[in-house]
Design brief:
single chain; mainly alpha; 4 helices; about 0% strand
């Protein structure tokens, strides 16, 4: 009986989703958010900072995706658990900043953070399921 080279399907799914999120994040920025910022009367330094911060998140999502794809095929799953948990901490921190910033700057916009919360919960849930995968004895 042939065994699969994929050691963790949860990490594989999360990796694919994260790469997809990176492309949709970049697309959303290029088509909606950044043109509005560029057309506004905001100074050039702030426009530039908004541009690169937006793309830092895009690249970060892409790197998470590649990391999870590599981890999905890694032989010893116990050696990649720390990385998975570390990414969970980063994602929770991201949502904390989203929630805290919205609470501080626009309390009426809290309901707009619900989509981000749902996505992050699903994303983290899949990662946690991946960390619970046991190495299969050959």
């Amino acid at each position: 009986m042939k065994t699969s080279v994929i050691k963790n399907y949860y990490y594989l799914i999360v990796g694919i989703l994260s790469i997809l999120f990176s492309f949709t994040h970049a697309w959303n920025g290029q088509t909606t958010v950044l043109p509005i910022i560029n057309a506004s009367s905001i100074d050039l330094a702030t426009q530039t900072a908004s541009f690169y911060v937006w793309h830092i998140i895009t690249v970060e999502n892409f790197i998470f995706g590649v990391s999870f794809l590599v981890m999905a095929f890694y032989k010893d799953l116990s050696k990649v658990k720390f990385t998975a948990w570390f990414i969970i901490v980063i994602l929770l921190s991201r949502w904390g900043v989203i929630f805290g910033s919205t609470l501080f700057k626009n309390i009426n916009g809290l309901t707009n953070t619900l989509t981000d919360l749902i996505v992050i919960i699903i994303y983290i849930g899949l990662i946690i399921l991946g960390t619970r995968q046991k190495d299969k004895i050959q």
